Amino acid sequence: MKKVVIIGGGVIGLCSAYYLVKKGLEVTVVDKDDITTGASFINAGYITPSHFVPIAEPGMITQGIKWMFNSASPFYIKPRLDTDFFKWSLNFKKSATHQKVAKAIPIIKELNLKSRDLYFDMLAQAELNFHMERKGLLMLFNSEKNLEHETKLANKGNELGLQVTMLNQQELREVEPVVANSVLGAAYYECDAHGTPNQFMTSLKAWLASNGVQFYLNEKVKDIISEGNKISKVITTKQELTADEFVLAAGSWTFQLAKKLGLNIPIQAGKGYSMNVERPTGINYPAILTEAKCAVTPMDGFTRFAGTMELSGINTRILPHRVAAIANAASTYYKDVSITEEEQKQATSGLRPVSPDGLPFIGKSSKHHNLTIASGHAMMGFSLGPITGKLVEELIFDKKTSIAIKSLALNRFY
């Protein structure tokens, strides 16, 4: 039986393990933590065909510079002397063109649609116990500027074959009565779905363990050793692991690990914040608060408020004023919804692996023939977990992939 070692136990690593186990492989997962926290657990739980525009879009650099000196802004770049970050920023700028965004849109859409279907396939097989439903997503706006912006995006979404409807104030209040009077309307993406991430991750991890997957947790990977054109072993803080195939799905830590092999997989950690309100809020639909860049999700037993993109290196420090910005946004967009100081103190953070062009890196290494890399999903890691796992399985078995992945090539920034 072919053996596979997966480095990384986030949603990408565990979904890869799921599809490889289904094909009868012997799988080992190694992670520096205990797989109970992080971005895969605290995200907004969206499966998002609606998010078809990559983060590297025209104007984002200009906006980022404006927000750079406001550490409470939705998109915060901490000024720092870092050569790798400087190179990443240059690649981000080169990617943020209308032409490149136009090429990325159909790829992102197809990845999300296929992943959504795979989630419901997993749910239908009744092997996993997790909450998932397709209620759609509301893009709420309280300014004329964003009304115009969201209308253009909705028109584009309909051109792409997604189900998008513009709702005025009255129509919005009929479906979501708790929105504040200041909210002018919403774009309603019926194509979207959502789940409860920590529930999915816990159930998937338990299923994998019961189906023979060996977990080595709280083990940091110190080195990856290659011999010729193949990986021979992974050295952790506790042992050496050998296998026939290796999968690098280490999220924000992928860049440093790939560097040990002479590979350039430019990824920066984008910190996001999340907090739960475990009492009735009256919120029925997942929503993006567009001006504040915050996400709101009614999950199984609680409502989650999440947001921000903070490029400040690899750290999980909680900045209270950034948490407060999310709490203030909730009160602005919804009537009688407030997040208490105690709930704000319980906020958590997670690091999302952000590529320069907003597309993930998924592919086989041309330098190391038994290495597959899957990372760089930015804010769509949870959304794209199943399709990425499926693609990893297809790559390892040298099958035709479910979608064309040329645009996700590992060497596109060499």
UniProtKB/TrEMBL annotation:
The answer on whether this UniProt entry bears the keyword Isomerase reads no
Name the Gene Ontology molecular function terms of this record: oxidoreductase activity
Q: A single Pfam family, by name?
A: DAO
Q: Which InterPro entries match?
A: FAD-dep_OxRdtase, FAD/NAD-bd_sf
Q: Which UniProt keywords apply?
A: Oxidoreductase
Q: Which Gene3D superfamilies match?
A: D-Amino Acid Oxidase, subunit A, domain 2 (3.30.9.10), FAD/NAD(P)-binding domain (3.50.50.60)
Source superkingdom? Bacteria
Positions of the FAD dependent oxidoreductase domain: 3-395
CC terms in the record's Gene Ontology section: cytoplasm
Show the stretches that span the lipid bilayer: none
PANTHER family attached to this UniProt entry = GLYCINE OXIDASE (PTHR13847:SF289), SARCOSINE DEHYDROGENASE-RELATED (PTHR13847)
Supply the name of the protein. Answer: D-amino-acid dehydrogenase
Organism, as annotated: Pustulibacterium marinum
